[in-house]
Specification:
Helix content: 25-40%
Distance between the termini: 133 Å
Strand content: 5-15%
Shape: flat
Number of helices: 10
Structural class: alpha/beta
């Protein structure tokens, strides 16, 4: 994105003391935040034709000016500034889109008839200090506008005289007067040089401690002193805060111990084991695959671009966010065949490093007994397979005119002939003999036809 296309810029609490370059670099600005700075004057914004909202709260502005060119300006916030020249609001009269104005916390709101004067001066205004302007209120203000303006001018002149006296007093306070500054100057001392280095160092330390004590006393007196609410006092307060911040920073830096430098190798070139990241890891000797595996418990949501792996024949170095994990390997590995993978579920980093020396495994010869057993088992397996195949797949078909089939005895198919005969042979029925002599009970009926 180019800076010239910006429509909203926020530069609050940046210790800005002057508005500049915005009207040249950001012509399309519609919203501009410049609150909580040290800006004493509104300037270099008249070319911002599209500007609708300008926030200059908590600054050192004393007069409303240089806004005539902001044709689209609708809202101006000057809360807690030092606007004492209330008649400067007449510079906003030409802005026909202007609707809201905030002057809360400025000296001008203490003037008598302040609200009536603003309402009558800016007829296009809809809200003043967060309160809507009623039509009846505007009619009354316009009717008595001349008398109100005279009163405002009188109070404004009184405030201007008061401000001039405050500025003069502040200038006299900050003026450096010649006199004793705590050091003695003599020709002898100027030409003499100290020969004892230890005494000189002791005197420097003593001077530094005295300076720190004096600074603490000065800070205490500054905050205990009663000061008027002026642009100069606000600037002095800011400078005092910046001074104390720098002093605290310098004391912290002096109290901090120098950071220990991490050594990755000794003076004679011997590699050292280092875990600067203080991260968990496992170094596994995988004998089955003839490799060394390093499992590093990286953070799950750590970006992979922040991890760097360097595999060397005798050691491995893993850099995680500029923190080094270096381990010496027990055996020499092949860096070209090594590979690094990362788990998508746990985030762990797994580095597999094949060893240079390959393990040759001897083949055990087979014994004779085992060979005999294997041959017998194979034979039995073949026989069972052949029987199964013949029983399932082989069929006998009878052909007409075959002599061998005629002599087949069906009873011989079954092994046990006697049992099968007994099982399947039916008992023969008893046949009584027929004789010519009739029985005693026989009755010869002539009507029954004879049997043929």
């Amino acid at each position: 994105m180019e800076i010239s296309t910006l429509e909203e810029v926020s530069l609050h609490q940046q210790d800005i003391e002057k508005i500049e370059y915005l009207d040249k670099w950001c012509r399309d600005l519609t919203i501009l935040y410049l609150q909580s700075n040290l800006i004493p004057k509104i300037e270099n914004v008249s070319r911002l034709k599209k500007l609708k909202y300008l926030n200059l709260a908590l600054n050192n502005i004393e007069r409303i000016e240089n806004l005539e060119g902001c044709e689209s300006l609708e809202k101006l916030d000057l809360t807690v500034n030092f606007v004492g020249e209330l008649t400067s609001i007449e510079n906003l009269r030409s802005l026909y889109n202007f609707k809201e104005l905030y002057l809360t916390g400025n000296p001008c709101i203490e003037y008598e008839h302040y609200r009536e004067y603003v309402i009558a001066t800016l007829p296009q205004l809809k809200r003043l200090d967060g309160k809507d302007i009623e039509r009846s209120e505007r009619i009354v203000a316009v009717q008595d506008y001349e008398n109100i303006k005279k009163s405002i001018l009188k109070q404004q002149d009184e405030y201007a005289a008061k401000r001039a006296a405050e500025k003069l007093k502040e200038d006299q306070k900050n003026e450096i007067k010649p006199g004793f500054d705590g050091r003695w100057y003599t020709d002898i001392n100027a030409e003499a040089k100290s020969s004892d280095d230890s005494d000189q160092k002791q005197s420097e330390d003593h001077a530094e401690t005295n300076k720190n004590i004096e600074n603490k006393d000065d800070n205490k007196t500054f905050w205990n002193e009663k000061m008027p609410f002026t642009p100069e006092s606000r600037k002095a307060t800011h400078q005092q805060l910046e001074k104390e911040r720098k002093e605290n920073q310098s004391t912290k830096n002096s109290d901090l111990q120098p950071k220990r430098q991490i050594r990755l190798a000794t003076d004679d070139g011997r590699i050292l084991n280092v875990n600067e990241a203080k991260i968990d890891f496992q170094l596994i000797d995988d004998e089955k695959n003839n490799s060394i595996v390093l499992d590093v418990a990286c953070y799950k949501y750590l970006d992979t671009s922040l991890i760097d792996v360097d595999v060397q024949p005798t050691y491995i170095k893993v850099t995680i966010k500029s923190k080094v994990l270096q381990l010496v390997l027990a055996e020499e590995v092949n860096p070209d065949r090594s590979e690094a993978k990362r788990s998508q579920t746990t985030g762990h980093l797994v580095v597999t490093m094949p060893k240079v020396k390959e393990i040759i495994k001897a083949h055990k010869p087979k014994s004779k007994a085992s060979s005999v057993e294997n041959t017998s088992s194979t034979k039995s397996n073949k026989e069972t397979a052949s029987t199964k195949s013949t029983s399932t797949k082989r069929y006998e078909k009878l052909e007409a005119g075959d002599t061998s089939i005629k002599n087949i005895d069906i009873r011989n198919i079954v092994n046990d002939k006697t049992q099968n005969q007994k099982k399947y042979d039916k008992p023969s029925p008893k046949i009584s003999e027929i004789t010519d002599t009739p029985d005693d009970d026989f009755v010869d009926d002539p009507e029954v036809p004879p049997l043929e």
